[in-house]
Every structure is written in structure tokens, then in C-alpha cells.
Design a protein that fits this description.
CATH superfamily: Alpha/Beta hydrolase fold, catalytic domain
Strand content: 15-25%
Shape: globular
Number of helices: 9
Largest sheet: 8 strands, mixed
Order of helices and strands: EEEHEHHEHEHHHEHEH
CATH architecture: 3-Layer(aba) Sandwich
Number of strands: 8
Number of domains: 1
Structural class: alpha/beta
Strand order of the largest sheet: 1-2-4-3-5-6-7-8
CATH topology: Rossmann fold
Radius of gyration: 17 Å
CATH class: Alpha Beta
Oligomer: single chain
Length: 275
Amino acid sequence: MNVLDRDPPTADRRIPYGPAESQFGDLWLPRPRHPETRFPVVVFLHGGWWSSGYDLGYGNFLCRALRDHRGVAVWSLEYRRTGSTGGGWPATFEDVAAGFDHLRELAQKIPLDLTRVVVAGHSAGGHLAFWLAGRPHIPRNSRIRIPPKVPLRGVVALAGAVDLGLLRELSTDKFAVDREWIAHLMGGSPAEYPDRYAAGDPGQLLPLPCPQALVQGTADLQIPPSLPNRWAAKSRPGGVPCSVTLVPDADHFDVVDPDSRAWPAVQTAILNLLE
């Protein structure tokens, strides 16, 4: 039974970062051991092909495990998605940027250590996580060029759709990767909207300015298991560390399940970047 089939735990707080129904984050906050404790932060971005058919709930098992067993605060973001929540270009990108940057406001009242912030994204959330890392390279004339307010220590892809161009190239009948999902997010194809892809595809925002880690199962049928190494070969010439861990026989949702064989690799990837 994977995380989609289980009742998710509940976060400590739900906090809006904007006026829309989907503009909120769930905060998972450990108990402080000392009065001066400030917690490192993982920002989690859920997947679901950027579609309103999925929400952040299935990632709650990962969030709880990081909070309870590793003393890490987790800020799990919801955002407008394609379909009923009114997302897609540019709203999805604007929400993710606003939700991430809301950490600066949260840290004024909550003991968060903004010198140790990592973003982790699953599936389509991996694309958004790597896009956040690439924001400094977004063309100046783009409407989604929103200068970051919080520095990133690193970024982690969990079976992540980190490169829209590579996804389109690797899309075959064997995988559930569908060019139509990408087109729904971006409003059309790269030929129709090259400026959007230049601003919204992490593969066009290299070199990313922070270390990256990619964790994926070899039995993943949604994101091609060849993608992480293809990304690493593409990104490493920029001089920034990029690690790849392929977990034998793990599937698409094992990488967000603390009870799975993939969890030790996921935990290690996140904690190594935080430390």
C-alpha cells in the first residue's frame, strides 16, 4: 500500500501565504530542545503533474518523519494547479515563489534557521524545486522573474521531473510521462511559447547556484530512471555538486514513503545538504 492509499497525518499548522484557496503551506515544527533552538528547514513540493487532481496530502508521511526523527522543520507548499484551482502558466510559478519566500515572514515569529534551507520536490514538484533554484537565471523580461528572498542551501529531486526538455525527449509509451501534462502547465509547446520555456524549464536555467541531489527508483514507471544521470551530465559542467542515487526496485512513490526501501537514501540526500 503506497502513500496515496493511506490516511495522511495532519500538520502542526496551516498558514496562508496568499488570498487564493490553494495558496497555503502546512508547517511541521519539531519541539525545541533548548530555548534558542532554530530549526533547519525543508520546503517540500508535491507532485501530480501540476494538476488539481492531486494535493499535498500524500507528502505528509515524509514531512512527519523529517520532523519527528530528524528535528527538521518542514514547510509543505500547496499551490494553484492546472484544472479547478486555476494554475498553470504563470500562476503555478508565482505561487511557488511566493510560498517559498514566505519563509522570511514566518522566521520573524517561528524559530527557523534560514541559513539552512533545502527544497525537496517529488515528481512534478521536483521540476518546481529545481526551478526555484534556477530563479537567478530567469530572463529579466519574464513575468515569473521574482528575485528570491531566502538563500537555498541545496535542492533535492525525488523522482523529479527536473528538466522539461529531457522529459519531452525521453517520453515513450513505457512511461506515464505525457507531453500533454507539460503543455497544460506551460499553455502550449516550446515552439509556441519559447519564452515561457526559457523562464520555466530548469534545464534552461543552468548552472544552478546550489548543490543538487537526485534520488529515484529503478522501477519508476512515471519518470524515466535515465533522467537523473542525464541531468547530472548536463548540470555538472557548471561546477556545482550534483549527486545521483538510484534505488534498486523502488517505484515512483517509494521515494516519499518513510517505510520504503528508498527512505534511507532520501533522508541522507536531504540531511547532507542541510549540514
